[in-house]
Amino acid sequence: MIEILENLDLLSRPNLDLASVEVNGIALGAPAATVPRQRIVGGLSSTIARYHGGTNGESEYYDADGRSLTLDEVIDDVIRSDGFLYGTDEINYKVSAGAVVGFAISGPHLSHFTHLTSYEEFLTVFGQPDRIHENEVYGDLLSYETYYWGARKHVTWDAWEDRVSFINLGDFEGNSGP
Questions:
Q1: Can you give the three-state secondary structure of 93-133, one letter per residue?
Q2: Residues pairing with 141 in the sheet
Q3: Looking at 11-162, which runs of residues are DSSP E strands?
Q4: How many CB atoms lie within 10 A of CB 144?
Q5: CA 146 distance to own-chain centroid
């Protein structure tokens, strides 16, 4: 297995073989329980009916009856079923049927691509995507959402800051084609 975080250039491949890579030591298909709990700072599961959180405080989770849920209870539910595990290092894990089926990478890892200063440079390095969605609000272009079906990859090019701001790999909507 090739560790993506030690070989970030792999993320630019339009036909990356996801069966041959891992992120933070976790491969697609691995049991979600193998994600080390000390790396998890939050989660999303079907048991959560209400959530309160922010950058300056602890997250609070509540079920449909208003009962407070601990982070451990949320994590336990995700690793038994479906949801997301949010990592301390801005690596998130998508879980389905108790297995890791996707990764979302943001934050400092993507500073590897700061040498790209325009969307045209981005396309030169990452290649022509299979699908492009221009994300606009009130007529302002915010980002280019690019999809590479051969790699089951979605890359966001932030048009305001001229940078790669988000990459997800695996079983996310749009990553495998229309």
A1: EEEECCEEEEEEECHHHHHHHCCCCCHHHHHHHHCCCCEEE
A2: 136
A3: 21-23, 26-27, 40-44, 50-54, 57-62, 68-69, 83-87, 91-96, 99-105, 131-137, 140-148, 153-158
A4: 18
A5: 14
The residue behind tokens 């934050």 is: 107
Residues 116, 156: contact at Cβ < 8 Å?
no
- Name the helix (H) or strand (E) containing 76: helix 71-80
Q: Are 40 and 71 in contact (CB under 8 A)?
A: yes
d(CA 98, CA 71): 17
d(CA 50, CA 71): 13
Q: Per-residue pLDDT tens for 38-90?
A: 999 999 999 898 988 766 667 889 999 999 999 999 999 999 999 999 998 99
Q: Chain centroid to CA 150: how far?
A: 17
124-132's contacts with Cβ under 8 Å and 24+ in sequence apart are 125/12, 126/12, 126/14, 126/155, 127/12, 127/14, 128/14, 129/14, 129/155, 130/177, 131/174, 131/178
Q: What residues does 154 pair with on adjacent strands?
A: 147, 168
